[in-house]
Amino acid sequence: MEVQWVVVQPPRPGPPHAAMALTLSILMGVWCTQALEMSVGKIPFLEAVNGSTVILPCTYSSCIGIKNLYFNWQFNDNGTMQRVCESVIASEGVVPDVHIFRERVEFVGKNRDNNISILLSNITFEDGGQYTCFGRNPKEKDRNHSAVFNLIVVDELRVVDNTLTIIIASAVGGAIAFLMGFMLLKNLTLFVLAKMEEKNKECLVTSSGIDNTENGVPGSKADSKPTPKKK
Ligand SMILES: *[C@@H]1O[C@H](CO)[C@@H](O)[C@H](O)[C@H]1NC(C)=O
Ligand SMILES: *[C@@H]1O[C@H](CO)[C@@H](O)[C@H](O)[C@H]1NC(C)=O
Ligand SMILES: *[C@@H]1O[C@H](CO)[C@@H](O)[C@H](O)[C@H]1NC(C)=O
Ligand SMILES: *[C@@H]1O[C@H](CO)[C@@H](O)[C@H](O)[C@H]1NC(C)=O
Ligand SMILES: *[C@@H]1O[C@H](CO)[C@@H](O)[C@H](O)[C@H]1NC(C)=O
């Protein structure tokens, strides 16, 4: 009688961290596709009392670096864009010479840490509206990039309700965390299942081996049993 020994190779599940690594690389990819990015911060609006002095924040960032970056600030006055100021930044860290077209405006960012914020003094109700921070980097075929900041001029300062922003932010964060946890758990479960299956198959092979030796002639066991195939 011939005893067939088959070494069962269980399918190898991917390591549980593979999903996470993939997610990370996708995130990095998204991050770096935008060569130049203008940002007015996490809260793109400000409510200020007339007569006060405010900073309109803006920073730029670029994966590929900048050279002769053109930027300006524009004010949307009833649909027509008015230039507030403009300049060209030769390279990172250089303080640019900024042309200012509007009164009570000062360039305060000084290009320190890519900061191109401006200061608006003694604001009036006419100053309220949309301000666009615009940038164009010749290094990336003159593509236009911009970010919009809203200035709301009020008589008296009300308490700004940030609850909704916080709720949305935590909901998005929670969803991402849940998804990552779910993927990890799924991979872990598959891994454990595969391990259990492997154990089961080992048991089957062992018991069939015992069955065969019981049927065979005692003593001839060593002769009739071929060496197990190894892979
Ligand atoms: C703001 O505007 C109100 C109403 O026009 C005026 O009474 C007040 O004096 C102004 N405040 C400042 C600081 O200019
Ligand atoms: C802006 O537009 C409104 C109507 O759309 C008009 O009444 C107002 O005079 C305009 N203001 C300026 C500064 O052009
Ligand atoms: C802002 O108002 C104050 C007091 O009215 C004045 O001294 C100052 O020069 C004004 N600033 C600008 C930039 O106009
Ligand atoms: C940009 O510069 C202004 C003025 O120096 C400062 O108040 C602001 O915090 C800076 N913003 C960032 C993001 O560094
Ligand atoms: C970028 O903006 C300028 C105006 O500032 C416009 O003339 C040009 O066509 C825009 N280029 C692209 C690629 O959108």
From TrEMBL:
Domain of life of the organism encoding this protein: Eukaryota
Residues in the signal sequence: 1-35
Gene3D superfamilies, per database record: Immunoglobulins
GO biological process: cardiac muscle cell action potential involved in contraction; monoatomic ion transmembrane transport; regulation of ventricular cardiac muscle cell membrane repolarization
Gene Ontology MF annotations: sodium channel regulator activity; transmembrane transporter binding
Protein's membrane topology: Single-pass type I membrane protein
Biased composition (Basic and acidic residues): 222-231
Residue runs in coiled coils: none
Keyword Glycoprotein: yes
Subcellular location: Membrane
Pfam families: V-set (PF07686)
Predominant location: membrane
Region (Disordered): 207-231
Sequence intervals crossing the membrane: 164-185
Domain Ig-like: start-end pairs: 16-150
Keyword Membrane: yes
Keywords, ordered alphabetically: Disulfide bond, Glycoprotein, Immunoglobulin domain, Ion channel, Ion transport, Membrane, Signal, Transmembrane, Transmembrane helix, Transport
Entry protein name: Sodium channel, voltage-gated, type IV, beta b
Species per Swiss-Prot/TrEMBL record: Betta splendens (Siamese fighting fish)
Lineage: Eukaryota, Metazoa, Chordata, Craniata, Vertebrata
